[in-house]
Amino acid sequence: MKSKVVLALLLSGLLVLLASCSSSDSSKADSQIESSSTSHDMVATEQENKAKTEELTDEQSEVIQTNRKIIYRAELQLNVKNLEKTQLSIEEKVGEYGGYIVESNVHRESEESVSARLTVRIPEKHFQTFLMDAEGEAAEVLTRNVTGEDVTEQYIDLESRVKSKRTVEERLLVFMGKAEKTEDLLKISSDLSKVQEEIELIVGKIKYLENQTSFSTIEIAMYENRVIVPGVDGKKLDTWEKTKKQLATSTNFIFAGGSGLIVLFFGNLPVLLLLLLVGVGIYFIVKRTRKPN
After folding, report:
1. Is the pTM of this model over 0.70?
2. Hey, how many other C-beta atoms are within 10 angstroms of the C-beta on 143?
3. Using CA of residue 247, residue 249, residue 253, residue 255, what is the dihedral sign?
4. How far apart are CA 134 and CA 142, in angstroms?
5. Which of 75, 113, 152, 274 could disulfide-pair with 109, CB 3.0 to 4.6 Å?
6. Residue 83: which of 137, 142, 129, 141 has the closest Cα?
7. How far is CA 120 from the centre of its chain?
8. Alpha helices in 122-238 (DSSP H)
């Protein structure tokens, strides 16, 4: 009887031990499954976040590519047949494209050489079209120089700085409203003034870049070389005028000579009368002395 009881106890202990081992293995398997599932979820989440980041970066890159800020400048040197007509035509084109003239100068070196210089601002969307139109007005294109300066990063940096400065400005305004001490109020007011000055400076730079990128600057130098054929001077061939001039000169010479004689005669009349009397007296004396005895 005792042996049966002992055998039953041993069997019961063995069953408990087997159940414990089975439970332990099951919990370990569940733990491994749960760990594997968690790891898989973390990897999936990480990959999803990475994909979203890459997608966002691509979108930002695409926005930057499609909204680039580029300052275009061009220089043209043109030989033209008729400078005045060409200049007027180009100025009309400037108005048609919504641009404006910054500077206009005309320089005449001689009768054969005339030049002009125009500086205009044209909307960026009409930049290439206007260049083609201006070149079409020339007899010969001497120089064509086009440059572009990409200021996209500078523009984005300025916008970011403005946003951060405006955030600081809002916080300072909140602090100013809550300030109770005069010292704190003065300090916050001074900081706020500096921040607002920095904002105005940055906004001014942004507006300048916007103006430079929305309108392109074009400098146009035009040259006209005229061929002048020497003509016969009509003044040198005016025979009738020359004859009248010579006749007048001769007449004046005669009148001047006659006038001189008249002046000489009447001006010296007393002397002439005296000489005449002396001559007559000598004549009678000589005549008497020659009478025959």
Report:
1. no
2. 9
3. positive
4. 13
5. 113
6. 137
7. 7
8. 127-136, 152-178, 182-214
Q: What are phi and psi of 181, to 5 degrees?
A: -90, 145
Q: Do residues 143 and 72 lie in contact, with contact meaning Cβ atoms separated by under 8 Å?
A: no
Which amino acid is it at 68? Answer: R
- Secondary structure string (H, E, C) spanning 101-141: EEEEEEEECCCCEEEEEEEEEEEHHHHHHHHHHHHHCCCEE
In the chain, where the domains are located: 70-151, 153-210
When comparing pLDDT for 40 and 247, which is higher? Answer: 247
Q: Tens of pLDDT along 168-185?
A: 999 999 888 888 888 888
Q: How far apart are CA 99 and CA 89, in angstroms?
A: 14
Please write the tens of the pLDDT for every residue from 228-273. 555 555 555 567 777 777 777 877 778 777 777 777 777 777 877 7
**Maximum average pLDDT range among 65-74, 119-128, 283-292:** 119-128
H/E stretch holding 78 reads strand 70-79
Provide the β-strand partners of residue 215.
123
Residues ≥6 apart with Cβ < 8 Å to 140:
78, 79
pLDDT at 26: 45
Whole-number average pLDDT of the chain:
76
Paired strand residues for 148: 72
Q: What topology does CATH give the domain 70-151?
A: Alpha-Beta Plaits (3.30.70)
State how far the Cα of 215 lies from the Cα of 168, in Å rounded to an integer: 33
